[in-house]
Amino acid sequence: MKNYSIFKSYKILFLCKWYPNRGNLCNGIFIKKHAEAIAKHAKVSVIYIGADDQMRNPMYEIENTIEGNLNVIRVYYKNSDFGNGIIGKSVKAFRYFKAFYTALKIYSKENGRPHVIHVNVLTRPAIAALILKKLKNIPYIITEHWTGYMAEHAEYSGLLKRISTQLTVKNAAAVTTVSEVLSKSMQTCGLKGNYITIPNIVEVQKIPFGKNSIPTAINVSDMVDEMKNISGIIKAMPEVIKEFPELRLELIGEGPDRQALEQLALNLNLLNKNVFFFNQLAHEQVLKRIAVASFLIVNSHYESFSVVAAEALACGTPVLSTQCGGPEEFINEDCGILIKPGDLNELIWGIKTMVLTCKNYTLENLQKKAGEKFSPSIVSSQFLELYQKYAVVWKVGNSEKKLIIDPLWTVLDVGSGNRPNERANVLLEKELGETIHRSGEVALIPEGKKLVQGDALAMPFEKDEFDFVIASHIAEHIEDPEKFCKELSRVGRMGYVETPGKLSELFFNEPFHKWIVYKKGDVLVFKEKTGFKCFSEFFYRFYYLNETRVGHKPLYSKSFFMILIVNLLRKSWKHLPATYTKYAWKGNIQYRIILK
After folding, report:
1. How many CA atoms lie within 13 A of 538 on its CB side?
2. pLDDT above 80 (res 377)
3. Tens digits of residue pLDDT in 380-406
4. How many CB atoms lie within 10 A of CB 339?
5. CA nearest neighbour of 237 among 227, 246, 224
6. pLDDT tens digit string along 183-207?
7. Residue 573 has pLDDT above 50, yes or no
8. CA 97 → CA 20, 65, 348, 358, distances in Å?
9. CA–CA dist 102, 282 (Å, integer)
10. In whole angstroms, what separates CA 81 from the centre of its chain?
11. DSSP, residue by residue, 68-118
């Protein structure tokens, strides 16, 4: 996909189970990379909800920050005081969704309605997304990273979890997984959905230095031996160093089995001789050590992807990996060696072979492979294509009429004024400055949209130049309805016209409205207005409380009760009959003009 301009107006909301936070700066760092890459082309915001065991009072803490090109809203809540039983889990769930509601209110106040929700890691964020889909008709996609669906891991259990996960996956527009094996594992678990594989992002690194002078193998993990099988690598070393006594094994990371693994290396007389442990390092330091190593070892029993293996290729380092799920989808003889998981003899053979052949892999070829598959531009374009496919429901006009507008259509907003439509590619406006036709407001030109100054009665466009034309609250102002309808029909294949309805004209009757516009069957009727006095001046001023309107004395009040009543009136007004005229057309507009 080459044309990214359409996404400037797209609002994407990430709902994340994992994301870097004050308790764990590395949690879900790969999700952050997805968000950052997408945010180069669309407006991306992130909501992360997390329990904090250290919190006492208050019950909730909010962080609303701008981090690079992302708006990140983190809400922390006090963990349950009632243990892990039914009551404790219920309390925790209540606090989670209350925290989510708080974050969503902050987001909505700043951004309005998102066009697509992007759930990252099931299940609670997806429940929230499902609720929003049912209430607000907002589509959502899911990206899953969790290994719990894989048979070797088998953590996907519990009746309530299974039911809620099946429901959210079924209702998602798409489910993306970081590997084919994870997709198949989820489907094996009975999770039926529209699956697509989109990998994690790994950026090719600039390497200003060469490899270590002595052969060096490296492993980076969270020191969970049951999954990563680090002990297997240590046990292979005595046999390997008989042939390659200079081989150095570096183990980077911290976790529950770190002490036991150090003791194993000590018992084998390898600790700080051939086997060296490093504490958790900053990501940049980890990449530097991978870059100077001879090869990386992934000895896991199961992996949904293996970011570290992809990062090794991006650093120009070949990989020795078990066939544990994710890695074999991108590791082959061009960039490394694959062995059976849990087979000590194969591991010994693989390490020996890699020591002998690691110099045969070139930096250029390894980095090229990584860039073609994992670069930010490649991965983000795949997500943008998904958003474009499913972000088809757009609100149009003051009535907020929901219309399905094809993602590939070119859309014109005629008379866009101070409220241009979010979906429009091109705006046509006659008057850019203040004008009574929009109560003194100036025209707005959002970033990424093309503005053309011109007259709606003689538009500077070719025939059928636009797939869809929006004309919201302009037809009632037009001098010549016949020319207006013919011009709309000429420049667009189809479109939507909205005006105040008969009820609105009765109650508000703006003096700059020349026509009462209404539908009669498939015909758009323009009836010339004869009187311009509104039904009730007080009702007009009350409806537009605390606003300055041309030709009317404003009504001001700080009363909470009055403001509440006015807000309820405005929200309910658009649902009353005849408050708006909504006319969708295709081909040619059928119209009728009634003169006084």
Report:
1. 0
2. yes
3. 999 999 998 888 888 899 999 989 888
4. 22
5. 246
6. 999 999 999 999 999 999 999 988 8
7. yes
8. 20, 21, 50, 51
9. 33
10. 33
11. TTEEEEEEEEEPPSSTTSHHHHHHHHHHHHHHHHHHHHHHHHHH-S-SEEE
Instruction: Report whether pLDDT(1) > 70.
Output: no
pLDDT at 171: 96
H/E stretch holding 6: none
- For position 448, what pLDDT does the model report? 77
What are the residues facing 515 on neighbouring strands?
Answer: 528
- Region 62-89: mean pLDDT is 90
The residue assigned the tokens 């990140």 is 72
Nearest to 492 by CA among 590, 352, 589, 403: 589
What pLDDT shows up at residue 472?
Answer: 97
Q: How far is CA 57 from the centre of its chain?
A: 32
Contact between 355 and 294 (Cβ < 8 Å): yes
| 559 three-state secondary structure | coil
Residues 568, 169: Cα–Cα separation, whole Å: 35
User: E strands within 401-440?
Assistant: 401-404, 411-414, 426-429
Give 534's DSSP letter: -
Instruction: Tell me whether residue 25 is exposed, middle or buried, using C-beta atoms within 10 angstroms of its C-beta: 0 to 12, 13 to 18, 19 or more.
Output: exposed
Q: How far apart are CA 428 and CA 454, in angstroms?
A: 6
pLDDT mean over 110-134: 95
In angstroms and rounded to an integer, the radius of gyration of the C-alpha atoms of the chain is 31
Calpha distance 83→16 (Å, rounded): 24
Evaluate if residue 440 carries a pLDDT over 70. Answer: no
Residue type, 282: A
Q: How far apart are CA 210 and CA 216, in angstroms?
A: 13
Domains defined along the chain, listed by start: 5-197 (3.40.50.2000), 216-374 (3.40.50.2000), 392-535+582-594 (3.40.50)
Cα end-to-end distance, the chain, whole Å: 54
- What mean pLDDT is predicted for residues 240-260? 97
Tell me the average pLDDT across 173-184: 96
Q: Are 108 and 76 in contact (CB under 8 A)?
A: no
Q: Locate the DSSP E strands across 405-521.
A: 411-414, 426-429, 450-453, 468-472, 494-500, 515-520
Residue 520, amino acid: K
Helix, strand or coil, per DSSP, at residue 511: coil
Contacts 24+ apart (CB under 8 A), 235-242: 235/264, 235/268, 235/344, 236/344, 236/347, 236/348, 236/351, 237/268, 237/270, 237/274, 237/275, 238/268, 238/270, 239/348, 240/348, 240/351, 240/352, 240/355, 241/274
Under the phi-then-psi rule, with left for phi > 0, alpha for psi from -120 to 50, and beta for the rest, what region is 434?
beta
